[in-house]
Amino acid sequence: MTLILSRSYLAEQAKIFEYAILVLLSTTGMMVLISAGDLIMLYLGLELMSLALYVVAASNRDNAKSTEAGLKYFVLGALSSGMLLYGASMVYGFTGTVNFAGIAAEAKTGNIGLVFGLVFLLAGLCFKVSAVPFHMWTPDVYEGAPTPVTAFFASAPKVAALAVFTRVALTAFPGIMMQWQQIVVFVSLASMVLGSFAAIGQTNIKRLMAYSSIGHMGFALVGLAAGTQEGAQGVLVYIAIYVAMTLGSFAIILTMKRNGQPLESISDFAGLSRTNPAVAFFFAMFLFSLAGVPPLAGFFGKFYVFMAAIKSGLFVLAVVGVLASVVGAFYYLRIVKLMYFDEPTGALDPMRVELRTVLAVTGVFNILFFVYPAPLVSAASLAAKSLF
Predict the structure, then answer these.
(1) How many separate domains does the chain show?
(2) Residue 92 is part of which domain span?
(3) Which residues pair with residue 262 across a beta bridge?
(4) Distance between CA 316 and CA 182 in Å, rounded?
């Protein structure tokens, strides 16, 4: 989907043939990461994914912001990789194995050194999902990177990192669940609250999407904090729906062009319902879905993770999550208000075919998910079962 969204960007601005290769290399890294059964393969998958992402972030070489985004991402990414590797080495030192099954067998004692290793390991993974307090790179990188690249950053690596986060926590450290559960609860709470409040003052749509994604990672981690099969299922349902919402939203952000110039300010959406009623309708649906308004897909994602948290007795986490959703709804609804009640600033360029395709697929999924959610929910349930 990202490559489809990138077509016009590649044709007009960045005539770089390696762009598609880098995106596919990064995706290969994600596949390795998700299927890793030990810490060494996990690290190799993570690096293969990340190194390609650093280059893609800086792919618009003539743009100072893009270069800055790539550099920031690289420096902070290297730091997080170091922390993850340090944690992995400590886990290996205290258990004598890098295999997840072996670690699970050794990690029933809750050795203090092992807990330290776990903290560093999870800190590295929190950086990859841009969870608070390791979120600082996200708004700058999202704003600086070319928009199709931002669409990729906001969707694919998040899925891979959340999947491996879930896998590591549930298959390698089930014996010390109390310890990692505390970390995940804190990170989840902080991400939901910061993602909701920090986005209120944003004027750039890509920065707003960055804070939105931080908040959504917090919501997804609510499911992991539950530490149950239902929780893992909730995480997978949530992330699948999140990807559809994000790609659809970025298809619309890429449409926002006037005389060939991309528009990134939130004020540019004013009066969109009069100039492009179909685009405004779909964007409103995506924003309502991101806010978690039923019967759209986003509501079901939140429903599954909050139900899992309540069944595990994490009532505070669920209540804070619902309140954070309400705060988050404010900045989504502000854009809907701009589109439907403000005066238009001018007509946009016509929408490209490839953007229409992505918008149609993700929009229909988002609006009609409630009609037939069974395939996704049962697939997530099977995947979650395999972790226990």
Answers:
(1) 1
(2) 2-385
(3) 257
(4) 13
